[in-house]
Amino acid sequence: MKKLFLNNEVIKDLSLNDYEIAVYAALRSMYDSQKELQYITYNSVAFELYGNLQISRRYMDHIKSALNSLVKNGLIKKIDSISATEFIVDMSGLHFEQNSEKGIFYTVITLEEVHRIMNIDIKKDNFAILRYFIILISSICHDKGIYEHSSGYDAHTDFVGFMTQDTLAGWCGTTKARIIEYNSILETEKIIYTYRHTQNKKDKETGQIMSFSNHYGRYEDKEWIIQFANEYVATFNLKETETLVKAEKSKVNKRYAAIYNLLEKDFDKYIDNFSDADLIGTYKYIHSKNICNEKELRNIEEGTTFYDNILSKIKNEDLFDDIPCVVDYVNRKVKQKRDMEKRKNNLVNAISDDNWDEPVSMENDFTVEEILDIPTEGEVQMNLPLVNTDCVGQNNLCEVVLPNYS
Predict the structure, then answer these.
(1) How many CB atoms lie within 10 A of CB 250?
(2) Are strands 77-81 and 86-90 parallel, antiparallel or unpaired?
């Protein structure tokens, strides 16, 4: 498994676009410090990124433009042109050495990871996803992020990160919404894993709630990440006035609202980004909000500004008709409702046949709408705001609260 050592100063340079960062990663893979000059072609750069040459003309044009841009930026020097697509280049400008005193650090990814990301079949810019993945891995704590799973065992390092989405978005020069999309894609492809905490820390006196950092890393480190996250909360030093509470429902709902907005904006573009649990949770949230707003309209005079304001909040649910998992969920809930009604009727008939004094009312006499809104176990938690983060930087700047095994 070939490792690529990337200069953090380069990958976080916002003057370089996503294509230039990807080509930089390809060149670092091709770089040979033992050679003063190297022969490269546009195709060889593309092959380094994809592991094949099944690439569209549009993306090949981006690779060509990015390579020429890196020449202009001085990262590589074009010594000679053999043809319009073949060059002799000096790549010594790609060399660097880690120096903590000068703030020079590196990030390690594998060529296999590059190939997996660049070959994801999705209506997204794979170059942008690759850049985000590189940034995500750069935020993993290498020397301070230590988890000792049991006394007497060696420490395990270099597997978990916990930076905020806002920070990661800033390092990529993109938006938090994009970060949510890319996380969903990479999690679906089992390239990364994210542990989302279901508990918050609450001050019993002030009522102030602070969420724990989400923890993330490579998918193959999933079990380590889960153990670390659980240990992190279990050993968190709570004050006497503080307690652990369930994550706020409003924060979960914000994720569902964001998913709905993306689906409404471009259904075909975003539908494959989310899991069945995400989509069902989004439906339940939107459907519940619509019911509440529709009930409120009944008590408001039609034609008033207040009426129009509430009416504008009602969302179109038609798009859910094209989501199989949601359709199955609704049908299942309707069947449950019918079964409940049938049992109720059978019980009422049985009571009536026995000539009891008065029929007994049923406790859970739900409407179809109410049945659809009954929460189910395993509801997906949103990407909680990552505050109270222990890591304020990368590598030597990471500090994690660790269990005391003394």
Answers:
(1) 8
(2) antiparallel
- Identify the H or E element spanning 210: strand 209-211
* Cα–Cα distance for residue pair 390/224, rounded to 1 Å: 18
| Beta strands 3-7 and 106-110, pairing class | antiparallel
Mean per-residue pLDDT, 278-283: 91
Q: Identify any residues that bridge with 242 across adjacent strands, giving them in sequence order.
A: 203
Q: How far apart are CA 148 and CA 307, in angstroms?
A: 58
pTM reported for the whole predicted model = 0.62
Task: Please state, in angstroms and rounded to a whole number, the distance separating the CA atoms of residues 275 and 287.
Answer: 18
CA atoms within 13 A on the CB side of 385: 12
Angle at 255 between CA 11 and CA 131, to 5 degrees: 15
* Distance, CA of 69 to CA of 270 (rounded, Å): 31
Contact status, residue 197 vs residue 214, Cβ threshold 8 Å: yes
- Phi, then psi, of 202 in degrees rounded to 5: -125, 135
Tokens describing residue 321: 């008709």
d(CA 284, CA 170): 32
Phi, psi of 246 (to 5 degrees): -65, 150
| Per-residue pLDDT reduced to its tens digit, 6-48 | 999 999 999 999 999 999 999 999 999 888 899 999 999 999 9
Query: First-to-last CA distance in the chain?
Result: 38
List C-alpha distances in Å: 179 to 127, 173, 195.
14, 10, 16
